[in-house]
Design a protein that fits this description.
single chain, 436 residues, alpha/beta, Rossmann fold, 3 domains, eight-stranded mixed sheet, 18 helices, 15 strands
Length: 436
């Protein structure tokens, strides 16, 4: 697909994108922006880091009518961090408009009474929030008039479903006009979400970035075998062998993330821990510190592999491979952005063979490496040993060394004879320069 220069139908949007140093559309933006301008409902499927947020924000702002002080668009996001990120992007675009465009953020942990009083006085043109908070203001408090909105965007829909928030979104979606444009943005479209899609999207456009486009990112995929070593010891060696600008170390559970963080802290690494169990206010401060580049390592669960925009990540380290191969793609997509190189290093063991085969089916071609004396060096591919041709020595040469089989047998003769044959074969192989 040809990637074209950035060009919006409204000059203030072009100014906003220019300030962000947007030079050309990403493949997902090139596909999605023209399609959403048609006012048709759509399903947008692409991985994190592909530019999905601006792919729906640009056409949304193009449709905004600043002369109408009504709620025109609602955007739902499954986490506070993602909602805040979308809000920041939207505010940046709105700041270039000569006519005020009121954009507001609604998430948990804020002053509910104060927000309700403000809504009773004036209504935003764009409301961005988490599903629970939106449901509260739309259904319980009845202060957010979503019946006025003509656009509903549901970002990270599969994560919304995984976290159990789809019912809240369903209640909010039911209050919008039947003519509203509904855009569902997601990395994957699981079967469980199909009833929701059929309920609110009539003959939607299916906008999907092909796998080969996703794997064209500048990411080197490296597989590092743990062998007989403890995984935490391999991680220690790895962190001594690399010097990342900024790295995310992904763990599958809060417990393993805690363990890894404590270990890295004891090694003197400049690391921070973030997962769903971290108190929201502290999480916001951590994200702020991350953007200010106060850490070199972020130890995290998948809460930040989706949606959250963190620039300048040079390395992704999978301390544990995610159970779902799709999440490997989401995690690795945190690096290799904006034409920069990135590396995704994954620790693996014998039990991961089938998983690694699935990565290849995704179009990924990892390199196999190992740690040797504190340095990462190339290693044989995991299936090289099984595919190697077994060396067969000349039988006549073997017989000259071990002799013929005895005519009379004694107990254990077969084992001793076979051992002698193996030794003779190795001796012949070494002399000939072959490997048995």
């Amino acid at each position: 697909m040809e990637v074209k220069p950035v060009n919006s139908t409204k000059s203030f949007i072009n100014e906003a994108l220019d300030a962000l140093k947007f030079k050309q559309w990403t493949p997902v933006q090139e596909l999605v922006i023209p399609a959403l301008r048609k006012n048709q409902s759509a399903i947008v499927q692409s991985v994190t880091g592909s530019g999905k947020t601006h792919s729906y924000l640009v056409p949304l702002f193009e449709k905004m009518d600043p002369t109408q002080q009504t709620l025109q668009a609602v955007i739902s996001a499954p986490t506070r961090e993602l909602a805040k990120q979308i809000f920041d992007f939207a505010k940046q675009i709105a700041s270039f408009s000569k006519d005020p465009i009121d954009v507001r953020l609604y998430t948990g942990g804020t002053d509910r009474d104060r927000e309700i009083k403000r809504l009773e006085k004036s209504i935003p043109m764009i409301a961005i929030g988490t599903p629970g908070k939106l449901k509260d203001f739309v259904i319980q408090a009845k202060v957010l008039p979503t019946h006025q909105a003509s656009i509903l965007i549901i970002d990270e829909a599969d994560m919304t479903m995984d976290e159990g928030f789809l019912e809240d979104v369903d209640l909010v979606a039911a209050t919008l006009p039947k003519t509203a444009q509904v855009v569902v943005v997601s990395a994957t479209i699981p079967d469980q979400i199909q009833p929701f899609l059929k309920k609110y999207l009539h003959q939607p456009l299916m906008l999907q970035i092909e796998q080969e486009q996703l794997t064209s990112l500048n990411i080197r995929h490296t597989l590092l075998k743990t062998k007989e070593k403890q995984r935490i010891d391999v991680l220690k060696e790895l962190t001594q062998a690399i010097n990342p600008y900024l790295s995310i170390v992904f763990c599958n559970t809060k417990e393993s993330a805690e363990l890894v963080f404590q270990a890295m802290d004891s090694w003197g690494k400049n690391a921070v821990l973030i997962h769903g169990g971290v108190e929201p206010r502290k999480r916001r401060q951590i994200i702020k510190n991350i953007h200010e580049l106060q850490y070199q390592y972020i130890v995290a669960t998948d809460i930040i592999s989706r949606g959250m925009d963190i620039d300048n990540i040079s390395h992704i380290i999978n301390y544990e491979l995610p159970e779902d191969v799709e999440f490997y793609v989401h995690r690795s997509g945190r690096t290799g952005r904006m034409a920069k190189d990135g590396e995704c290093i994954s620790l693996y063991g014998y039990e991961n063979d089938e998983y690694l085969n699935k990565l290849v089916t995704k179009g990924l071609h990892p390199v196999y490496r190992q740690l040797s004396k504190g340095v990462i060096v190339d290693a044989p591919a995991r299936n090289q040993r099984s595919s190697r041709q077994h060396y067969q020595a000349d039988p006549s040469k073997v017989r000259r060394i071990v002799g013929n089989r005895p005519t009379t047998v004694k107990p254990g003769y077969k084992k001793k004879y076979n051992e002698a044959v193996q030794k003779a074969t190795k001796k012949i192989a070494r002399k000939s320069g072959n490997r048995p």
